[in-house]
Amino acid sequence: MSESVFIGVDVGATKILVGAVTEAGSILSSRRFKMEHETQAATLQSIHRSLESFMRDWEGAAPQSIGIGLVGQIDPETGTWLEAMNLPIKSPVPLAGPIRHQYGIPVMLDNDVHAATLAEQRWGIGMQSKDFIYLNIGTGVSAGMVFGGQLVRGTHNYAGELGHMVVKPDSVLCPCGRRGCLEPLVSGGGLLTRVQNEMANYPNSTLHLLRDSLTSHQIFTAADSGDPFAEKITEDAVQALSIALTNLVNLLNPEWIVYGGGTLSDGWLIDHVQEYVRTMPLTMIRKSLKGMVPSKLNPEYVGLLGAACLALHAEGVR
Fold first, then answer.
1. Is 246 exposed, middle or buried (0-12, 13-18, 19+ CB in 10 A)?
2. Separation of alpha carbons 166 and 143, rounded Å
3. Is the CB of residue 252 less than 8 Å from the CB of residue 147?
4. Which of left, alpha, beta for 79 (phi over 0: left; psi -120 to 50: alpha)?
5. 3 state DSSP class of 145
6. How would you write the pLDDT of the chain (318 residues) with one tens digit per residue?
7. Torsions phi, psi for 245 (to 5 deg)
C-alpha cells in the first residue's frame, strides 16, 4: 500500500516551492518557481500557475490535501490571505476556496512561520519536547512558539512577531515604521541595509571591498578581524538579540530554543548570545532552559515541510 501524499506550497517574496510530501516527512518531489510580484494579481497568478504546473506533472499517488504557507497575515479558518508587507497583498484574498474547488481536495493556509513551526513540532525538536520556541533569522526574523504541545497563535493568528519587539529605542528604522525593532538590527537583510546606509562614515572599513557581494557571514568575519565598522554593527546585533531572547525566555519559560535561517547558519551570532541567554533570565527560569540548538530540518525545505504540515492538518492527520 502506497503512502499518502500531501502537497506543500511554500510562498516567499521571490520564489515559490511546491512539493509532494509523505506523512513521515519525506519529500518525494519538489519544484521551484519564480514569484512575479509586481501587483497583487501577478502574485496570485504566480501561486496558481506554480501549483498547476506541479500538479500537471505529478505522476505519483493522488494527493490527499494541499497546504500553503504564506508571508504576512492569514486567517486559517476562512482560508483568507489578509495582507503582506513584502508582497503586494493590500486587500483580503479568499485563496483556499478557489483552490479547493479546482482540485477537489481540502486546502489549508497559514503564515509561513507558523507552518515552519508545525514542521519543527512534527519532525524536529517537537519529537522530544512540548515546550519550545522556533527561532528563524534570515532575511527577516520570525519566531514560532509551542507550549503544551500546541502552537501559540494569539487571538487573530498574529502571535510570534518577535522581529518587531523594540529592543533599542531611537535606533535604526524598521520597515514597519518604528525605530529600534529587532529585525533591522539582527536579520540578514537588516545587517546588509545598515552596511549600505552607514558605510560612508567608515571609509577605511574592509567591507567596502565586499559591498557588491556582501553576506552576514562576511560581516561577522570582519568583526572578528577587528574592523571597527563591522564590530559596531555586530555588537548592536548581539545586544539586541540577547535582550529579545532573554525577555522571551523570562516571559514564556521554554524548555528549548531551536533555531534556523541563513543568518544563524554559521553559528556566529548564536555563539555570541548563548552565554547571555544562559545567565541573564531569572534563576529558576534559566534552569528550565535545556539549551539553544540548531534545527535538524533542512533549511532549504523547512518552509515546504511546514506547508505540507498544513496539508496534514487540513486532512485531519495528527
1. buried
2. 15
3. yes
4. left
5. strand
6. 568 999 999 998 889 999 999 999 999 999 999 999 999 999 999 999 999 999 999 999 999 999 999 998 999 999 999 999 889 999 999 999 999 999 999 999 999 999 999 999 999 999 999 999 999 998 889 899 999 999 999 998 989 989 999 999 888 888 888 899 999 999 999 999 999 999 999 999 999 988 778 999 999 999 999 999 999 999 999 999 999 999 999 999 999 999 998 899 889 999 999 999 999 999 999 999 999 999 999 988 999 999 999 999 876 543
7. -70, -35
Task: Give the residues across from 111 on adjacent strands.
Answer: 70
CA gap 31, 136 in Å, rounded: 23
- Residue spans of beta strands (DSSP E) within the chain: 5-11, 15-22, 27-34, 66-70, 73-75, 80-83, 93-94, 107-111, 132-137, 141-147, 150-151, 256-260, 291-294
At 311, list the grid cell. Answer: 496539508
- Give the chain's length: 318
Instruction: Give me 290's grid cell.
Output: 535545556
Q: Which amino acid is present at 56?
A: R
* Separation CA 157–CA 163 (nearest Å): 16
Name the 3-class secondary structure at 312: helix
Task: Using alpha carbons, select from 107, 114, 6 the residue that is nearest to residue 54.
Answer: 6
Q: How far is CA 125 from CA 133, 141, 172, 254, 292, in A?
A: 10, 19, 34, 12, 11
Q: What are phi and psi of 238, to 5 degrees?
A: -65, -45
Distance CA 215, CA 171 (A): 22
CB 168 within 8 Å of CB 242: no
3-state secondary structure of 196: helix
Q: Are 1 and 8 a contacting pair, CB within 8 Å? A: no
